[in-house]
Amino acid sequence: MDTPAFTAAELAERFALQLHGDGSTRVSGVATLAHAGPAQLAFLANPRYRPQLAGSAAGVVVLRADDVPSAPGTALVAKDPYVAFARISALFERLPAHAPGIHPSAVVDPSATVSADAHVGPFVSIGARTSIGPGCVIGPGCSIGEDCSLDAGCELQARVTLVARVRLGKRVRILPGAVLGAAGFGLAMDAGAWVNVPQLGGVVVGDDCEIGANSCIDRGALDDTVLEEDVRIDNLVQIGHNVRIGAHTAMAGCSAAAGSAKIGRYCLIGGGAGVLGHLEVADKVLVTAMSLVTHSIREPGEYSSGTPLTDNRTWRKNAARFKQLDALARRVNASTQESPE
After folding, report:
1. Which CATH architecture describes the domain 6-92?
2. What is the pLDDT of residues 13-25, one digit of tens each?
3. Active site residue 241
4. What angle do CA 225, 229, 231 make, to 5 degrees?
5. What rounded mean pLDDT belongs to the chain?
6. Which 3 state secondary structure label does DSSP give 205?
7. Which pathway does the UniProt entry assign to this protein (predicted)?
8. Which of 241, 248, 278, 295 is catalytic?
9. Is the pLDDT reported for residue 268 higher than 90?
């Protein structure tokens, strides 16, 4: 496959960017400021990397207008350099070709329907009453259970499992090893023993969502677990049964939402953060990494929990003092009440 190449002027016109410098500069790839060569394009979005700009060998740099005077060569000015870089770099992404058809080793239930231009790879299993829409790509080893539906343009990479009653919108992308529609963690205690609560709902995923490798989204107990459009789920994320995640929200790796939690639109859930069950998180909330949401959040903003990282000796001293906080607060309150006016 030939490597594509574009001039700076072509990129400026294609992505509505302002050109500074030599428009004939050609680029055939992308890289970081520190490692880019004369035939590559880099970007500057984070001010921490500004010292690297002057010494960068990149042929073209995407940056903000304020940084143009420091650029050593050709520059493309963008309001958001990172977004512009993402769109430009897609021109250099090499995607495998997937010919339409069903691999001979795939097993498709007679009641399932597969679009003629869909690609079904080797060792795929497709269950009863499931439908695969136009342009879908089903990678090797995927298992799609009963009563599932995939709208146009979905991509399931290797070993993705849709257990049952999973409905995907258009252009949903699921990375290897993810499991959607497994039974939620529904239990009832009876006479000292657990009784499983049947999980009779499904999973509904909106258009343009992406679900990372080895993430799990459980089906609902009665109602469905729902991801609205353009939700982005990183690797190793757990979504419990009956959770609802609003449009354009992103959850970073190893985060989790427990059963029946409701997360709003345009939220950002940091890596390792958790949302307890049955809580509600408002739109446009940012939960920082490793935080635990223990009560509903009603207002937009940035929220954190836990203590900052320190050396272990200091942490142990502070941890010992945590146990004394209640007694200290009582003494302070008592002294305040006893003090004369």
Report:
1. 3-Layer(aba) Sandwich (3.40)
2. 999 999 999 999 9
3. yes
4. 75
5. 95
6. strand
7. Bacterial outer membrane biogenesis; LPS lipid A biosynthesis
8. 241
9. yes
